[in-house]
């Protein structure tokens, strides 16, 4: 059949032994249809100036977005230099799972709703990659797309997060005690756990006259400034303490401790007394007192604190309340 013979002849011509051959025939289906393309020669192939892999075809999906293709090594350097000059991150984008997590990490309290282009920019991903992965995340339920075209975190992630043993399980046990603590003082009762070099707030109960705070449930904060953070850092492994104390430290107020020697003395004081005091380290109108929550083995697994208006109560009086609540939560934890 002429079409088949022509296709085979042209395909054989485009071999490493004959790099200057015309590559201009593409087979469709069973080779019964042949698309004839312009004859192109590449004189720079043998000289190493251009790789054969540089010749790629980028398909367009149903939404008109170009699909991602890998760049050859020879051209990738030029692309990275160009990207660097534009102020964009360079280098490989990483595995698919890593790129999907980059998209999810683009959301934060200040960016709860994002367009596709904003997602791609904040995740440092090509628009085509962001488009493809965001579609898959939407199908799974990790991300939701509103009628306005903006993307938001989906409820499926909340469902999975509720299974975390250090979060909701601990919260369910501690919640009645936190409510009592907040009700008796009219202030903020907080529960937190350590995650790496930071803390994560698991719960916060605010009383009717509670002092405003910078924390939120699910939010992260420095270990060196808050009452719960000082407790968690004081009982963290030595290597964690050393890494945190190596800095840098964020200064929230003029009272925020940022000198390692001062922090070491404060942590030793927390361990010896059994509670922490954060005196106007986060805001100038708040005082925080924290205490450790221990599991059945005596290991510190969380911390509870009261955040009150500065000057409304003495730290020692607050310490008794907080330690009593922390001990009650510790006893209520499942063995």
From TrEMBL:
Keywords: DNA-binding, Glycerol metabolism, Transcription, Transcription regulation. Transmembrane segments: none annotated. GO terms for biological process: glycerol metabolic process; negative regulation of DNA-templated transcription. GO terms for molecular function: DNA binding; DNA-binding transcription factor activity. Residues 94-155 form the HTH iclR-type domain. PROSITE patterns: HTH_ICLR, ICLR_ED. Residues 69-94 are annotated as: Disordered. Residues 156-335 form the IclR-ED domain. InterPro entries: GAF-like_dom_sf, HTH_MetabolicPath_Reg, Tscrpt_reg_IclR_C, Tscrpt_reg_IclR_N, WH-like_DNA-bd_sf, WH_DNA-bd_sf. Gene3D superfamilies: 3.30.450.40, Winged helix-like DNA-binding domain superfamily/Winged helix DNA-binding domain. It comes from the Bacteria. It holds the Pfam family HTH_IclR. PANTHER family: HELIX-TURN-HELIX TRANSCRIPTIONAL REGULATOR, ICLR FAMILY, HTH-TYPE TRANSCRIPTIONAL REPRESSOR ALLR. May be an activator protein for the gylABX operon. This is Glycerol operon regulatory protein. It comes from Kutzneria buriramensis.
């Amino acid at each position: 059949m002429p079409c088949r013979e022509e296709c085979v002849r042209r395909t054989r011509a485009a071999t490493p032994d004959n790099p200057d051959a015309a590559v201009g025939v593409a087979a469709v289906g069973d080779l019964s249809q042949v698309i004839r393309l312009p004859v192109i020669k590449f004189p720079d192939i043998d000289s190493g100036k251009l790789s054969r892999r540089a010749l790629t075809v980028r398909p367009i999906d149903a939404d008109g977005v170009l699909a991602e293709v890998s760049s050859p090594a020879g051209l990738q350097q030029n692309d990275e230099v160009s990207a660097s000059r534009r102020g964009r991150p360079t280098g490989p984008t990483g595995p698919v799972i890593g790129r999907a997590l980059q998209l999810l990490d683009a959301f934060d309290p200040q960016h709860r709703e994002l367009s596709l282009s904003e997602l791609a920019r904040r995740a440092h991903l090509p628009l085509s990659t962001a488009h493809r992965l965001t579609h898959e995340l939407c199908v799974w339920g990790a991300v939701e797309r509103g009628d306005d075209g903006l993307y938001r975190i989906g409820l499926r992630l909340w469902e999975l997060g509720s299974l975390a043993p250090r979060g909701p399980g601990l919260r369910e046990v501690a919640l009645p005690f936190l409510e009592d603590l907040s009700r008796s003082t009219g202030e903020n009762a907080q529960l937190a756990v350590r995650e790496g070099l930071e803390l994560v707030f698991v719960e916060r109960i605010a009383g009717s006259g509670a002092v405003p705070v910078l924390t939120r449930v699910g939010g992260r904060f420095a270990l060196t400034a808050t009452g719960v953070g000082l407790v968690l850092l004081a009982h963290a492994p030595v290597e964690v303490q050393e890494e945190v104390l190596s800095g840098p430290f964020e200064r929230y107020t003029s009272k925020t401790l940022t000198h390692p020697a001062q922090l070491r003395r404060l942590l030793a004081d927390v361990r010896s007394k059994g509670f922490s005091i954060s005196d106007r380290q986060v805001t100038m109108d708040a005082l925080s007192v924290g205490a450790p929550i221990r599991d059945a083995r005596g290991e510190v697994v969380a911390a509870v604190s009261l955040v009150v208006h500065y000057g409304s109560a003495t730290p020692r009086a607050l310490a008794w309340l907080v330690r009593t609540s922390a001990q009650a939560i510790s006893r209520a934890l499942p063995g």
